[in-house]
Amino acid sequence: MTRNAADPAAGLWGDDLAPVARTLLTSAVHCFARRGFTGTTTRDISTGAGLSPAALYVHFRSKEDVLFEIARRGHLRALEAVSAPEVTAGLDDPPARLRAVVARFVSWHARHHVAARVCQYELAALGPEHLDEIVAIRRQFPELFRSVIAEGVDRGDFAPVDAGRVVRALLSLGVDLVRWYRPDGPDSPEQLGRFYADLAVSMVSAVPGPQPG
Amino acid sequence: MTRNAADPAAGLWGDDLAPVARTLLTSAVHCFARRGFTGTTTRDISTGAGLSPAALYVHFRSKEDVLFEIARRGHLRALEAVSAPEVTAGLDDPPARLRAVVARFVSWHARHHVAARVCQYELAALGPEHLDEIVAIRRQFPELFRSVIAEGVDRGDFAPVDAGRVVRALLSLGVDLVRWYRPDGPDSPEQLGRFYADLAVSMVSAVPGPQPG
DNA sequence: CGCTGATGACTGAGCGCATAGTCAGTGGAT
DNA sequence: ATCCACTGACTATGCGCTCAGTCATCAGCG
User: Fold this and answer.
1) What is the structure's pLDDT at A6?
2) Got the DSSP string for A34-98?
3) Which residues from chain A sit within 8 angstroms of residue B99, using beta carbons?
4) Would you call B38 an interface residue with chain A, using a CB distance cutoff of 8 Å?
5) How many CB pairs (< 8 A) connect A and B?
6) Using CB atoms within 10 A as the burial measure, which of A34, A44, A116, B13 is most buried?
């Protein structure tokens, strides 16, 4: 199961890792995404990277440690995608900032839907202290979304929506797409990002219908 | 791991099943939701129902068969919740029908978030022919949503939205809540259903902002 | 009423197999 | 000569599933 160079997962891991370790993580991402953590054997991961079963333990302490490295690095990359300074640079009104953050969140998850599937759905297999570390990163996503929406509501750009519930909904849209998104479908990651940015603006606008509450 | 009578999962299975078989399915739902299909042992399921390991095979052919029964019955119940005649009875305009269908879909998934988690996230463990049967049921959800939205667009009640993408988004909202919903949180299943019904109406309304496309 | 045989839900023991992880050793690079 | 990424062979454990057997229930029969 050798992966080609265009695999988006291959670029997620950072230079601090040996090339072989990155290959193992990439193989593990595909295995975990397909069969889940417990459904994947350490042999699947190693042979998927073209190595013998024991090679995994040269680079990682355990199978759970492999999952943790994927989750940690994946979450940090996603956070970087939505909170890097250039995302909202020059955007001085909340609607534009909301559009930018939602579009980045969605397009990142679409592009990295395989790795994101592991990051979103396999966390229960982590040990308690590893899980804590991931949860600490995860908390920053709703905080970022909430601050953008709260500012828009305060300034009157948005309707007086329940920020907490809208944030939940926006994160749900971005997360759930990793379950169904396929790169050969009708939408590119960027197109989907723009569409969901439109939806986000709709969701914080007053409803013109007969039941506004 | 005996469950009390208020467990929503206990009421999902129907009268054609022996009481012990229903207890086993209920135990299996909780095991699968917590540890996943491959992370659950047949011993977990049986002893969770207060039985010996071998008792499972009195009522089910295999562990995969247990998952299939959960998925089949769960999907049929959810479909019933959104497409029963009384859901849209007396609602003659598309906005009201959209609200009703979304609210039912969401509140069902919130109330049955544990069983729904199994139905949504464990399908990959099914064999091909069992999976086909579940997929055939699943197809009816987007069809129902699409018909309501298409009618609203045709009649001019809704903005000329891309029905396929809006349907995807609405299903995502209802599905993803099974990942984070907790009964002791701020929203009851019905409150969440009404909120998402509001969002649905927003999503098919014209966007008043500066970037309507 | 009691006796008998059949039925079927359930159990205890265990089989064959796959799994995560180990370790002494190998071979290529420096 | 040293180093270390990597391997082949291995172990202990836990898995899905089976099967002979137990026990409670019940119909048929005298």
Assistant:
1) 78
2) HH-TTT--HHHHHHHTTS-GGGHHHH-S-HHHHHHHHHHHHHHHHHHHHHSHHHHTT--SHHHHH
3) 211
4) yes
5) 102
6) A116
